[in-house]
């Protein structure tokens, strides 16, 4: 019993120690954006560039409370965001937003605008290794009106502990009428279990 407790304690310490810590949000953002670190995935199909990037809890916390928060607000805000897994999905064609490439076709433009604004929960899917579907909690599509070089959607899924120990999950995007076929990213769950953190002051 004592050996078992010691083992669990040691395992917890090792898991915590695997979390990379940063002093500045920009440093963490650069680390996350580097595909070699396992939090950012890219793919190209049918002339569309796809980038899927995990968004760690502490980047969302810092965005809300800043780097010099009032006492007690860090853990409180972390608890709010750590209930979910957040991903930024960016899609670009000809280095522009998807809608920019459809401006001349009013029907296709309107259809895609409607899908991006209201229907992405039917187009984006997250599956476990055993093919269980994780229901999307929410998504946000901020309309950039042509000032961005990509269409970016923030997607949230519940951080269910029974799925966090999976080896991987598959994130898929159905064809949005751009003749790309289904796009699939395989997410290494070990990276999400030891996501980087910020050192707040």
Describe this structure in words.
By secondary structure, the protein is α+β, with helices and mostly antiparallel strands. It has a single domain, classed as Domain of unknown function DUF4426 (Immunoglobulin-like), CATH 2.60.40. It is built from seven helices and eleven strands. Helix 3 packs across helix 4. The longest helix is centred in the first third of the chain and has 16 residues. The protein is globular. The chain starts with a helix and ends with a strand. 19% of the residues are buried. The N terminus is likely disordered.
Q: CATH fold name, please?
A: Immunoglobulin-like
Tally the helices.
Answer: 7
- Rg over CA atoms, rounded to whole Å, is 19 Å
N-to-C series of helices and strands: HEHEEHHEHEEEEHEEHE
Strand-residue fraction? 25-35%
The class by helix and strand makeup works out as: alpha+beta
> What is the percent of helical residues?
25-40%
CATH class: Mainly Beta
Taken together, the total number of domains comes to 1
> Which whole number gives the mean pLDDT?
88
Question: Which strand order does the major sheet show?
Answer: 2-3-4-8-7
CATH superfamily: Domain of unknown function DUF4426
Q: Please identify, by name, the CATH architecture.
A: Sandwich
Which regions are unreliable across 5 or more consecutive residues at pLDDT < 50?
Answer: 1-17
Largest sheet: 5 strands, antiparallel
Kindly state the number of beta strands: 11
Question: N- to C-terminal separation?
Answer: 39 Å
Shape: globular
């Amino acid at each position: 019993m004592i050996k078992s407790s010691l083992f669990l304690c040691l395992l917890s310490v090792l898991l915590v120690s695997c979390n990379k810590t940063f002093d500045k949000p920009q440093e963490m953002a650069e680390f996350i954006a580097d595909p070699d670190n396992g939090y950012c995935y890219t793919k190209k199909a049918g002339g569309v560039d796809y980038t899927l990037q995990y968004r760690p809890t502490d980047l969302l916390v810092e965005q809300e409370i800043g780097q010099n928060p009032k006492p007690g607000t860090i853990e409180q805000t972390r608890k709010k965001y750590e209930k979910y897994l957040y991903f930024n999905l960016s899609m670009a064609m000809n280095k522009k937003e998807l809608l920019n490439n459809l401006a001349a076709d009013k029907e296709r433009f309107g259809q895609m605008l409607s899908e991006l604004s209201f229907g992405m929960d039917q187009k984006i899917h997250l599956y476990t290794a055993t093919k269980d579907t994780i229901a999307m909690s929410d998504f946000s599509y901020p309309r950039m009106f042509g000032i961005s070089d990509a269409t970016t959607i923030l997607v949230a899924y519940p951080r269910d502990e029974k799925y966090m120990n999976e080896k991987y999950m598959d994130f898929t995007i159905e064809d949005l009428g751009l003749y790309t076929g289904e796009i699939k990213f395989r997410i290494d769950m070990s990276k999400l279990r030891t996501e980087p953190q910020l050192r707040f002051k």
